[in-house]
Specification:
Length: 406
């Protein structure tokens, strides 16, 4: 099947059957007899390990830079963010916090991995991209709905195929792993959180890194703390056996995704950062009452998300709109959206909601509301014992800065 035709077909199959769907669709993902699905064996693996060896050969000091980003899901503006990172910040390697594909499992999964390779393959061949597995890497067939995210039996059905595709794409042996570079250890966690064997493994990894006196960076998909759109059922915002291990072993930073937006908070002396601004729809900040005074966040403005007007006296800051990006080479264009036929109704149409975005820094005291969405990435600079972090938007604005270690 031609690549464009196959992509259109995949998008139709994926519509409404992904994690986070609001309804339980009754849709069969079986292809027609004449349809051909791409297989993972047809996609070249984007293995970060050989590229990392080249980085190790090039860098002989403890001065280096890495980027952290996630939740892209084939966003049309993501290439602009990659370009900014590649050209302006030039990281030595990249950590991803999951959901780099729309649906990585089931029969439709390989097609989305193929699209990721076309969208971002050039960047992933230039420097190492180390991945964390997210719920959309697992999603595909059968589906996992929001209410079932904590249902182990349902989750395991999807994990098998989705996880196998994830491992093949990045040529990894396991979805949780660690690697050491210079004076730091980087630990990727499984989705949703470590438990059982993976929690025991994590304990051993943390203790070994602490004994070796390394900086410890953890990255995964589901955050441990948030003020965004994820409910308490998903993200409890409380100490767990895993966060206790982070504290006991002096973890320097924990980077996550999943709750689309940016959030930086310090809990138990450890910075927890959500870097989920790779292009997926930004979620509203529905849990601001749980924020600490010094927190920094960027999410959808909650009142407008509920359909309420903005409070009186609130000025909307105008930003330069994001330019429409030309598609990268070999990337199929977005499919023409299906338009529902208009059906006459005696009820008036509900007015479209205007979407606003809220940025707030408890450090600088700056707070603003805009009507233009941003994409962003976190950039980490390591210089021996000193570690600094900044969050940069696709427009080049620095959202947040923090000294993580002196």
């Amino acid at each position: 099947m031609h690549a464009l035709t196959r992509y259109f077909f995949l998008m139709l199959l994926a519509a409404g059957v992904l994690i986070g769907a609001d309804e339980n669709p009754k849709r069969d993902e079986k292809p027609k007899k004449d349809e051909k699905f791409v297989t993972m064996d047809e996609i070249s693996p984007f293995d970060p390990k050989p590229l990392m060896k080249k980085v190790e050969e090039r860098i002989k000091t403890d001065k280096y830079r890495f980027a952290v980003l996630g939740d892209t899901k084939h966003a049309t503006q993501f290439p602009a963010l990659v370009k900014l990172i590649d050209e302006q910040y030039v990281p030595d390697f990249v950590l991803t916090t999951g959901d780099m594909v729309q649906a990585g499992g089931g029969k439709i999964g390989p097609g989305f991995w193929e699209k990721l390779s076309m969208d971002t393959g050039a960047a992933m061949q230039k420097r190492p991209w180390w991945p964390a597995i997210g719920n959309h890497e697992i999603a595909g067939s059968p589906i996992v709905l929001r209410k079932e995210l904590n249902d182990d039996d349902v989750l395991k059905q999807n994990q098998k195929v989705g996880t196998e595709n994830f491992l093949k794409f990045y040529n990894l042996e396991r979805e949780y792993y660690s690697f050491t570079f210079r004076n730091a250890v980087f630990i990727a966690l499984p989705f949703k959180y470590p438990k059982g064997a993976s929690e025991k493994w994590l304990k051993a990894e943390l203790e070994a890194a602490r004994a070796a006196k390394k900086h410890i960076f953890v990255f995964n998909h589901a955050p441990f703390y948030t003020v965004g759109g994820k409910s308490k059922m998903e993200i409890e915002n409380k100490e767990t056996s895993v966060t206790k291990m982070f504290q006991e072993n002096g973890v320097l930073g924990v980077f996550s995704g999943h709750d689309h937006g940016y959030y930086r908070t310090v809990r138990g002396g450890i910075p927890y950062v959500i870097s989920a601004g790779g292009g997926a729809k930004i979620y509203p900040a529905m849990r601001l009452k749980e924020a600490l005074p010094e927190d920094v966040y960027y999410f959808g403005e909650p009142e407008s998300a509920k359909g309420n007007p903005l409070p009186e006296g609130i000025k909307v800051v105008e930003l330069q709109p994001l330019a429409k990006q030309a598609p990268v080479v070999a990337t199929p264009p977005e499919p023409t959206p299906f338009v529902e036929p208009k059906v006459e109704s005696k009820f008036p149409e509900a007015p479209k909601r205007k979407q606003y975005f809220l940025y707030h820094s408890g450090v600088t005291g700056v707070s603003r509301i805009t009507d233009q969405v941003d994409l962003f990435s976190v950039i980490i600079d390591v210089d021996g014992p000193k570690v600094t972090m900044k969050c940069v938007s696709v427009r080049g604005e620095i959202f947040d800065e923090m000294e993580m270690a002196k």
